[in-house]
Amino acid sequence: MVPSEWLPRLLGIAVLLPLVAFVVNVLVGPALKKYAAYLSTLMICLAFVCSMTALVLAWLPYHDPAPAGHGDSEPHAAATSMIIPVADQPQHAHQEIAAYTGYWYRLGQFGSLHLDIGYYIDSLAVCMFCMVTLIASCIHFYSIGYMHDEESEYTDHEVTLSDGSYLTRPGRFPRFFQYLSLFCFSMLGLVISGNIAMTFVFWELVGICSYFLIGFYVERPSASTAANKAFIVNRVGDFGMIIGLMVIWSTLGTFNFGDITKDEPGIFSLVRPAEHQHELIVPAKMVQEAASEKVAEIVQHSESLETALSEIDACTDDWRKEGYGYWLMIVAGLGIFCGCVGKSAQFPLQTWLPDAMEGPTPVSALVHSATMVAAGVFLVGRFFPVFVPEVLLVIAVVGCITLFMAATIAITATDIKRVLAYSTISQLGYMMLALGVGGWMAGMLHLFTHAFFKSLLFMCSGSVIHGVHTNEMTEMGGLRKKMPVTAYTMLIGCLAISGAGIPFLIGFSGYYSKDAILEQVFSFWRYQPENAGWGALFFLVAAGSAGITAFYMFRLWFMTFAGAPRDQERYDHAHESPKVMYIPLIILSIFAVGVAWNFFDVSLTNLLEQARPLGTAASVQGEIVQQWWPDEHLAHQEKIVFPVTLIAFGTAVTGFLLAMLFYGLRVLNAQEVQQQFHMVYRFLLNKWWFDELYDFLWVRPTLLISRLVTGIDRRWIDGLIDGLADCTKRFSQWGDRWVDQGVVDGFANLIARWTFNTGLSLRRVQTGQLRQYVMFIALGTVAIFILISLFWSRTLAG
Amino acid sequence: MSLFEPVGVTHYLIVGAVMFVIGAICMATKRNALGILMGIELVLNGANINFVAFGSQYLRTETLGLDGQLVALFVIVLAAAEAAVALAIALNFYNNHATIDVDRADELKG
User: Fold this and answer.
1) Residue A674: what pLDDT?
2) Is the full-model pTM beyond 0.80?
3) What is the ipTM metric for this complex?
4) Is residue A769 less than 8 Å (CB to CB) from chain B?
5) CA distance A762 to chain B (A)
6) Under 8 Å CB-to-CB from A365, ≥6 apart: which residues?
């Protein structure tokens, strides 16, 4: 199979299959009943088959994923000095990137500008396809079991009607799968999209799907509020993204990622042109846009257009050196990142994700762990070559704050799904931090490993909720004996997210990705020539939070599965989930263990390395901020890897042991600690007061303003309109009385009265006397004869 | 014109006019519905005599020919039909009022 032909076809089909399921379910879903679920599941499984075919038959044979010579690109200078000047960076031999760009359909063309439905397929996209479709397939199967209550009439025990009874409504089984299919379509479309505008469209589709799915139990006020919250908070981020899009469109004139032809360079080649060794520069168009005053000056003073253009071209390099256009790059990068902050629930827009746990658990597993929230990280990874160092620093700071904050909140949460929600936010923070300190590979790797183990964890939690009918961990305990498969697959998930492994030898998938992140952060700190404060802060927070991660995950596991049951009644009723639910758990747990392993040089790392954006393997220095972003290869050095692996292992073990002491063995009492650090506990329990802060800052003022506006509306605008209506009414009443009743009715009445009077006078003739009528006829005839004979003339006869 | 001339159209017209006038007087004076019907028959047949006379080829040269005879036949048919309807009305009127005095039939007057 020729990759350039077959990849777009196979992946295009994979995108469209879930759409087919969605359309069919929309049209005839209720009639299909549970076959709607089978249809959706079949379609996503076929999409998985397509994706795997694309990976195994169209990608791997043509792109050897052997490590691309880490050895020879190892910087020699690093051995002697910790600091390497940028100029000494060895140029990488591989300057070609294996990516297929093109378009299926051209939406519109405006001169040289055009908008396409296109694709940008590199190994990252192919791997994302496999990951998304695999997890989605597992979740479809799982949902068939989890949502079986919805097949017939469903009684919602969380909605009480005014008469005190529970709400009973028709089941929404087909509708659930319809949304899932639409979601899968949107997510796959997002991954394959070849330009940022198309990404944005699918981005919003993903958002609307998550809105539908979070608000699936629409009758529950908490669910509909959470859906609104998710949607509105995402809107804030998307607003920034639109600004980024506008900057890109107005200055670069293209949305395409890659080059469709040589004459139409995409964003990536514009910001990292090959003649500059793929170093990040401000594109000429952006420089000229920023220096528009100088351009206007040149145009005014030159005789002809050609000389002006050539002079502008000559000056562009100087302007670029003066820093023109650099801020546009910052705005574009920050704008795009803003969208990612919303979608990936980063600080300060993280508040929607925990509330989104109101949706059914399979939704959380699919949307809020593996796909939608990962879309933000994916886009940062996709757009990585465009981010200037200043933007990267912002990304790192945001990621750092997020991962620490969410990890601390997760310690105190008692709702099993909320712990996982905060854990998700925290892990997404890790990815952002990794990307922000220049660790493209580390961030992307963690995106994949996290997708597997977090969807596994969510599905396990769903299985627990299915078994014991509560979300509260304080009512669980000892469930290991009742639901062994769930317990041990969840243990695998916990080990994977904590990054468990034998140092330097082998480990769960999280071991590789988390260590890669920490190594990158550590090298960002250690290679910093001066002002290493940021790096130190990042590393300490990241390493510390790794310990917290292990702590809260094992807290969750121990509270749920170990020790004596806290609620005997719930324990007695608990049961293992059906096969259709726990087999996906086993499949995912296999991936959670081994997705990052290396099989004969075919590993996720090597595959992703092929998609590394050109030029990002080199170290860079900020223009405004005095920081230095080390080359990612530097993080593989012994003196980085060795301490970091030990630190990571140490913190994880510490976290595990603490959780063991508190919740496993119950030697230490968590309640006492809570009382000891009363203030801290309340601070964390209330989620850093973020909801209250936003309530105070935005929600209340908005409500106040709306109340004010309502008042104005009621009093002034309604009054005005009522007055106008009154005037119109009075006018029409006057018109009715004078014109209609007077003139028109009077005329009609006049004719009627006439006719009536004529009839009255003629009725006297009708005497009913037959003989009189005969007399009239006879006399009439005689009269006519007399008249004719008197007035006879030729003219009358004609 | 005198009575001693050979019989011509004029004689027939005189007979027809006499019959017509008798019929009209009969209609105007009789209170009995059947009498009035008879008067109508006389009027119609008085007219018929005229048609027949004008249609006869023995009486004059500018004859109506068969047209005259045909109109007479139509009139006879119509008279029969009219008589049937009129008799039915008279019968019904008798059933309702136990009389056929036409002066009593003034319920629909204006």
Assistant:
1) 80
2) no
3) 0.81
4) yes
5) 8
6) A135, A139, A142, A454, A455, A458, A459, A462
